[in-house]
Amino acid sequence: MATNSPPVRRAGRRRTRRPGPLAARLAAATTALVLAAVGCSGEPAGKATSLTVLDYYTDASEHRQWGDLLAACGRDADVEVEQTSVPPADLVPRILRQASARTLPDLLMIDNADLQQIAQSGALTPLEQYDVDTRGFADGILSAGTYDGKVYGLAPYVSTLALFYNKKMLAEAGVPVPRTWDEVRTAAARLTDGDRYGMAVDANPTFESAWQFLPFLWSNGGDERQLDSPQAAQALRLWTDLVRSGSMSKSVLNWTQADVHDQFAAGRTAMMINGPWRIPALDEDPDLEWGVAPVPVPRAGQTPVTPLGGEVWTVPRSGSAERQKKAAQVLTCINSPSNQLKLAGQHHTVPSRTAVAAQYAEQNPAMSVFVRNVGGARVRTAELGVRWPRAATGIYTAIQSALTGRQTPEQALRQAQRTATTD
To pair with 139 at 20 to 30 A between CA atoms, which of 105, 116, 154, 191? Predict the structure, then answer.
């Protein structure tokens, strides 16, 4: 969230996603590359001994962890791996430049919300041609790497959203963990005291807030294809009610997911919507007693529908069949059950293979809510494909307009629908 995502760490983690269609620019940039690949002998002379990798894991520890795994998988494939990490906002522009210059990497990591547009351009190769095993992945997770019926990318792990709460604050206020929207309103009001607010979300003008709004939209039967529906307005009204009642700070209009975390960790909000990647930082404070529960739903007994975050690994067209084959071997290694389990433990995410995720939940009880939610999570591009960025832009613009009082939720979402459908 956008992912990736938007990213939001990524939209879906901690990065900030950029809006805007990519397919046309990518298609133009990759045309020369594809033609060159068709016209060449298929690969440079000699055996492929090295691979280039591009990702946006710029955090020092994250870069190192991924570097170690890529190197190990490279050894298994008998190649050396050269990893390059760029800031999230720079990844797609970098892909555009490299496609134009015919220098795409051999292995490319992208936010799952970008997969549709990049695959549509012809820059990627379908994984079926390398006999990559895609069995054991949850359907929703596999769809994150699928375009036009073919799998172009696999995610070794994924993430989604849940409700974090301060156990001590809820106990002192005599407030049960809220499960429904009405319970959220009541709990947030009772937990608001002095400079402490009851609830916090990310409502800033980026893909991050669209990502955080989706559980409320989807769980109420709303749809990104029809943003001006009554169901969508009811979801946005929940957020505006919390701000207008004083149960949620107006500053959420500027907060990132990292800012929401900081407010929660500092005791300035009793509850927050966030992702599992926040758990390591929360665990650093031994005095902070926190719990995690599903995102509250409109009515009791419902199951929340949350967005699927995370990155997929792909094999771009390089003009070398041998290098593409080696890259697919490394991709397969990354997605092995043992490596999925290792990566999930390092990054506090959910393994993409269903059986591995179940094993992980048994070993890490705090992750069980996220594992359950991932089973029914949706990909942001599932309904709109390459048109998702327009809808996301409409959503976060509507959130800004409604929470500032410039428009009612209904008015703001009518404008969002126009944004999403304007060519």
Answer: 105
Please measure the distance between the N-terminal and C-terminal CA atoms of the chain and give it in whole angstroms: 23
Which CA distances in Å does 17 have to 8, 10, 309? 7, 7, 12
Q: What pTM was computed for the model?
A: 0.86
258 inside domain: yes
Counting the structural domains of the chain, the total is 2
Domain presence at residue 56: yes
Measure Cα distances from 363 to 107, 115, 358, 360, 387 in Å: 31, 31, 9, 5, 39
- How far apart CA 248 and CA 239 sit, in angstroms, is 8
Q: Which pair of structure tokens corresponds to residue 232?
A: 């969508």
Backbone φ and ψ of 159, nearest 5°: -145, 170
C-alpha span between 166 and 271 (Å, rounded)? 6
Rounded to the nearest 5 percent, the helix, strand and coil shares of the chain are 50, 15, 35
272-323 pLDDT, tens digit each: 999 999 999 999 999 999 999 999 999 999 999 999 999 999 999 988 999 9
Amino acid in position 101: A
Mind listing the pLDDT tens digit for each residue in 107-117?
999 999 899 88
- In three-state secondary structure terms, 295 is coil
Count of residues for the chain? Answer: 423
Domain identity same for 171 and 238 = yes
413 in Cβ contact with 228 (< 8 Å) = yes
Q: Which amino acid is residue 415, in one-letter code?
A: Q
Structural domain that includes position 38: 23-159+309-375
User: Amino acid letter at 69?
Assistant: L
Element of type H or E holding 74: helix 60-76
Question: Can you tell me the distance from the alpha carbon of 64 to that of 60, in angstroms, rounded to the nearest whole number?
Answer: 6
Determine the Cα–Cα distance for residues 322 and 43; give it in Å rounded to an integer. 6
Compute how many other C-beta atoms are within 10 angstroms of the C-beta atom of residue 295: 22
Nearest to 248 by CA among 200, 180, 313: 200
Backbone angles phi, psi at 351, to 5 degrees: -60, 145
H or E segment and range at residue 110: strand 107-111
